[in-house]
Fold this protein.
Amino acid sequence: MKTLLLILVCTVLSLTGRAQFGGDKLIDIASVLSINRLKNNNFMGVINGRLLSRPNQRWLVPFRQRTLTGSVQNRQDSLQMEARMSREMSFHYMRQQDYEKGVQLLEKSTELDPKQHRDAAWTYMMTFRDYPRALRHLEAFDALTPDFDDSDGISPISYHKGICYRGMGNHAEAVKQFSKGIDSLAKKHGSEWVNYKHYVTRAISYLALNQPDKALVDLEAAQKNSTSESPLALYYTGKAYLQQGRTTDAKRTFQDALFFWQANRVKGITQPEDYTNPVTEQDIEEALKQ
């Protein structure tokens, strides 16, 4: 009987420990995944309005008071954990619109762990549209592996650099950065493996440089790589036709873009397709009126 009771107690304690550990890890993972899932006018560290609405009390215990002894690896792990805490607390303060405190903690996270430069760059780029500061953090993160174009799992760092240069009005440099990621992937695996949105993004900069021929090549590749008709690619294809003076083709393409945009809405497909290049139904209608 005593043995059975002991087994039950150990099992409960084990499950409790796993639940606590799992909860903390989910919060940490969610704070990263949220970057690419929220609208531009929302703070990137919020999921369903709940993430870090209150700081997790467990994270408030100063890490330097807990694990500064032991091996060098332990200290490094401690600094990385403290960096994540600073990052998550910065999200909390930014959500409360205390941006000064939030930015201070965000910068502190990069001092504790250089890998946090990536999340800092996304915050400045997606939340504040502070492209010069975002670019500085992207450069710092990329410098950690100078011979490798890092990726966030979807886009290479060079793509995000291109977004920053585009936001700063330097479309020529933006094209260079977009091409770095697109061309390397196309050369290694084939152009069909390139994210179609990357082709659209480079095409937008080509249009800004009054190079519609190059833009149309990219937009054709984008439509080919998209799993379905892309209103985004069609909209900018119409823009390229306008630069070439092909108004009839432009009108037909805008009409197609509007049709598929509305069809996607009926199907419940998320619109706009790309928050980096947001195209709305109103944008397409305005292009048709012109």
